[in-house]
Design goal:
The chain is mainly α. Helix content is 55%, strand content 9%.
Length: 244
């Protein structure tokens, strides 16, 4: 079930506008929690009946931390939560995770995903550099912005004035109205796009903005899940290799 969910989510993330739909992830989360609840009752194992809920809760907290840091969109968080609900714990055939039989298998998925995405990002960066383009940023006209575009700068209103800054680390400032937030992985909403274009039309804002080049993370989560199920925990493998 987790692999089916991962395949559908990857298709949507890559081919359907970089959106992992709630109609896929939310029912999947509840289905996983209910599955373990019923399985635990049938086997008379109270702990097993809680495993789906524990896995979902741990996955959600883990994903939510990445969302707060601006690295993930909401769909990524819910996708990982669905994985945790269906496979809270698992003993892979080869490289065992450091946490053994605890319901923390989603951590293996995250570790694997991060390790697998690094070479892809490096290759992508080199190709963009050879093409004479920025690897992770591009400058566009504000009048050409679309909902979901991810800004690389902070733009806000303070005392009636438009201010724009290049933020460092986590963004939390004092503003009257937030117009563009670089740490929001879901990107600009429709209202923000319209407000930015309105300010350009009124001559209060220069008609350019730097955007991040986003990379869909759903397929990497799917790949991390697949490697975790078939091979094991890559992070543990590297640690064992260094220790030898």
């Amino acid at each position: 079930m987790a692999l089916v969910i991962a395949t559908i989510a990857s298709y949507w993330d890559l081919c359907r506008g970089r959106i992992i739909p709630d109609k896929l992830t939310i029912p999947s989360i509840f289905a996983g929690v209910i599955f373990y609840a019923v399985l635990g009752l049938v086997k008379g194992n109270l702990l097993l009946s809680l495993y789906g809920g524990i896995g979902a809760l741990f996955s959600f907290v883990l994903g939510y931390l990445f969302w707060l840091a601006g690295g993930w969109a909401g769909g990524d968080v819910k996708l990982l939560t669905a994985f945790g609900a269906w496979i809270p714990s698992y003993r892979p055939p080869f490289f065992q995770p450091l946490f053994g039989d605890l319901p923390l298998f989603p951590l293996t998925v995250v570790f694997n995903s991060a390790i697998l995405c690094l070479p892809v990002i490096l290759v992508y960066a080199v190709i963009q550099k050879l093409r004479g383009k920025g690897a992770f940023y591009e400058e566009v006209k504000i009048t050409e912005l679309k909902e979901g575009d991810i800004p690389a700068e902070l733009i806000y209103l303070k005392n009636g004035e438009v201010r724009r800054e290049k933020p460092l680390l986590l963004v939390r400032g004092d503003w009257d109205e937030l117009l563009a937030h670089p740490r929001r992985a879901a990107g600009l909403n429709q209202e923000q796009v319209e407000n930015l274009k309105k300010l350009v039309k009124e001559g209060k804002l220069e008609n350019k903005i730097k955007l991040k080049r986003g990379i869909p993370f759903g397929p990497f989560l799917a790949a991390g899940l697949l490697v975790g199920l078939t091979v094991g925990d890559l992070y543990s493998y590297f640690l064992y290799s260094l220790a030898e």
